[in-house]
Amino acid sequence: MMQLTKTGEYAVRAVVHLSTLPPGSVVSIAEISREWDVPETFLRKIVTKLARARIITSFRGNGGGISLAAQPRDLTLLDVIRAIEGELDLNMCVLSPDACHRSPWCAVHAVWCEAQQKLREVLSSRSLAELAAASLAHRS
Fold first, then answer.
1. Could you tell me if 120 and 88 are in contact, meaning their C-beta atoms sit under 8 angstroms apart?
2. How many CB atoms lie within 10 A of CB 120?
3. What are the structural domains, with CATH classification, of the chain?
4. pLDDT tens digits along 84-139
5. What sign has the CA pseudo-torsion 58, 64, 65, 66?
6. How many Å apart are CA 28 and CA 48, to the nearest integer?
7. 8 Å CB contact between 138 and 20
8. Do 43 and 29 touch, CB atoms closer than 8 A?
C-alpha cells in the first residue's frame, strides 16, 4: 500500500495549524501536539526537518516555539510533503528511467509518469492559506 507516512501527515497538521494563526504568531510544540493529536516527541523531530526546509522558524528558550517562515499563500502542500518525505516517486523507473531497461517502451512506465505528475500538480495547487481557511470554516 502506498500512503503518506505518519511523519508527513503530522507535518501537514502542524503547518496547517500555524497557517490558521495571525502572521508572525509563535506557538508551542505542546499546543500543536494537543490540538492536532500529534505525539510531542515525534513533533519535535518533525519541526527540525521543517525548519531545515525553511518552512517554519523555531525559537528556543522561555516563550519559544515555532512559526511559519513564509506567508501561507506562498507555501503548498507539496512543499511540506517534500520537506518531510523527499521527492515523490511512484516507482523506481520514474525516479531513474535507467533503472529498468523496459522504460523506453513500457506502457506502464508512461502511466507511472503521468500519475506522478498529476499528484504533484494537485499537491502544488493547494496553498497552506487555502487549507487553513477550509480548516477554520469546517471547524466548530
1. yes
2. 16
3. 6-87+127-138 (1.10.10.10)
4. 998 877 777 777 777 777 777 888 888 888 988 999 999 999 999 999 999 888 87
5. negative
6. 14
7. no
8. yes
